[in-house]
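TL;DR need structure tokens for one chain.
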Amino acid sequence: MLSRVANSLYWLARYLERAENTARLVNVNSHLLLDLPSSVKLGWEPIIDILSFRDTFYELHENADEESVIDFMIVDKKHSGSIVSSLSAARENARTVKEIIPREAWEQINELYHYVTENSAIAFKRRTRYQYLSKIILANQTITGLLAGTMTHDEAYLFMRIGRNLERADMTTRIIDVRSASLLPELENELPAFRNIQWMGVLKSMTAYQMYRREVRVRINRKDVLEFLLLESRFPRSLIHAIEQVERSLSELPHNKVAVEKTRILRNYLLNAKPAVLEQEKLHDFIDDIQLGLIEVNEKVSDTYF
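>> reply
TL;DR here they are.
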């Protein structure tokens, strides 16, 4: 396989996953708007911080109000991390490897791009935003299912699976980090009854709420949610599952020694750290270390294969 083709497949999967996870991220706040009492003012700035785009955002917008953040995260073509930009990049990568991926997958990617760009106005209305974002998430799930069910699981598929799971691992850590630290600081002191409501939002944003309730039958709490989202290897959106998928996929590729070793070190660090019992500041440092580890894995994959 040409390194150019492998690179396009890898980034096709990453951009699709990025678009889906950004939709999930905005949906966190959409869920909380429904769950919180009207007296609580919801902050939108932490969403920018999750993706580390604060400087870019304030170059384009004056205030981090709801409309500005929605524009920046979903439809702003000048912002490379927006849903529209991610899907545009995914579509371009898919176009260059149309002979590698199933035709139906290409058609779904193309259709999703046109849906998002042609219906962007409804993202600004609270009443229709959830439906718009859910369509993006469901379409991405359909594409992932098509690829898994109709594409030969050869080297091409392995590069896509590596890209998808690295992106998923990165976003999972980002959501947990900022969501736990700064979304609703006023709840801790003023509304104890809503102390853990942000964790319910996290679970819902990752479509993890029902699976969490099956596994953990007590009241939602920070420690159990962290353990589930970071360490439950049977849940496909957990951090440990994503890292293990990357390691398993790399192990099937040639010249994999350095990349596999980096991934294995990261997996062992996660398993030995017991992150669920860490205080917030130490949890933040731990997640920083995980994200640096994911960057190193990405660099080793790029150096080796692209």
